[in-house]
């Protein structure tokens, strides 16, 4: 049998390349979809707490607790995901990098502030009701995520924004920062999803339709959990996509 010619042998790779081009999604439309999905998650958790859980207050009642899921989903998942994707914007690939560093750090700091307020809401509710703190897996995982988040932000600020940080330190820490950024996002998603499930188990029992009978609230909150999971997976996928990563440049990153 005659060996295939170069042109014939290249058909397979060419077809594969065309298929990849067909499946390729431009970043900006994807980012718009992701932003819509994030806003939907925030709107749904707010609707859940307002419609089924009684609304919001600062009186130490269950309405104070309702701030917890809203602030956690908004800060720890959606705003944190937006901060993680800053360097995937094509506008960040040229010119000075410092303004984008500041934007990245500011979004992450905003996410951290909302997260701390969310923790304050749940601790205030537990203390006013005489409920023990930090006894469930959800609470352990959530607090651990927040502590890791705070260490990540402080280390990133020291390594990338302080002018006297040496270039070798930035180069050494950068892959660690990227790894923990994705890890913290997935831990945030896991904490939020487990918290939604825990709240449903506690709420849908006496005086309400049992969770196992899947009332409308359970369907709505479970759907919210799935959307949060999809959001987190898509953000991590965008971070891992090579064609959307900022081209490595020695001078801007090392000299700023």
TrEMBL record:
Keyword Membrane: yes
A single Gene Ontology CC term: late endosome membrane
Molecular function terms from GO: metal ion binding; transmembrane ascorbate ferrireductase activity
Cofactor section: heme b
Catalytic reaction annotation: Fe(3+)(out) + L-ascorbate(in) = monodehydro-L-ascorbate radical(in) + Fe(2+)(out) + H(+)
UniProt keyword annotations, A-Z: Electron transport, Endosome, Glycoprotein, Heme, Iron, Lysosome, Membrane, Metal-binding, Oxidoreductase, Translocase, Transmembrane, Transmembrane helix, Transport
Domain Cytochrome b561, chain residue ranges per copy: 33-240
Signal peptide (UniProt feature, chain positions): none
Domain of life: Eukaryota
Pfam families: Cytochrom_B561
TM segment ranges: 27-49, 70-90, 102-125, 137-164, 176-197, 218-240
Function, in words: Transmembrane reductase that uses ascorbate as an electron donor in the cytoplasm and transfers electrons across membranes to reduce iron cations Fe(3+) into Fe(2+) in the lumen of the late endosome and lysosome. Reduced iron can then be extruded from the late endosome and lysosome to the cytoplasm by divalent metal-specific transporters. It is therefore most probably involved in endosomal and lysosomal cellular iron homeostasis.
Record note on quaternary structure: Homodimer.
Protein name per the record: Lysosomal membrane ascorbate-dependent ferrireductase CYB561A3
Species this protein is from: Dasyornis broadbenti
Species lineage: Eukaryota, Metazoa, Chordata, Craniata, Vertebrata
């Amino acid at each position: 049998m005659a060996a295939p010619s170069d042109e014939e042998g290249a058909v397979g790779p060419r077809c594969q390349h065309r298929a990849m081009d067909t499946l390729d999604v431009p970043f900006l439309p994807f980012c718009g979809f992701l932003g819509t999905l994030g806003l939907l998650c925030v709107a749904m958790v707010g609707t859940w707490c307002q419609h089924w859980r009684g609304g919001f207050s600062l009186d130490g009642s269950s309405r104070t607790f309702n701030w917890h899921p809203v602030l956690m989903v908004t800060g720890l998942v959606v705003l944190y995901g937006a901060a993680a994707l800053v360097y995937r914007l094509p506008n960040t690939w040229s010119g000075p990098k410092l303004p984008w560093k500041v934007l990245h750090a500011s979004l992450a700091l905003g996410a951290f502030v909302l997260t701390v307020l969310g923790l304050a809401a749940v601790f205030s509710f537990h203390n006013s009701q005489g409920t023990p703190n930090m006894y469930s897996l959800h609470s352990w995982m959530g607090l651990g995520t927040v502590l890791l988040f705070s260490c990540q932000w402080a280390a990133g600020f020291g390594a990338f924004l302080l002018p006297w940080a040496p270039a070798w330190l930035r180069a050494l820490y950068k892959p660690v920062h990227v790894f923990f950024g994705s890890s913290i996002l997935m831990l945030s998603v896991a904490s939020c999803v487990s918290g939604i499930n825990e709240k449903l188990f506690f709420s849908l029992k006496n005086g309400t339709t049992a969770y196992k009978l899947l009332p409308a609230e359970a369907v709505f909150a479970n759907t919210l959990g799935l959307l949060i999971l999809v959001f987190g997976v898509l953000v991590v996928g965008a971070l891992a996509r090579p064609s959307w990563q900022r081209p490595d440049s020695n001078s801007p990153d090392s000299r700023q």
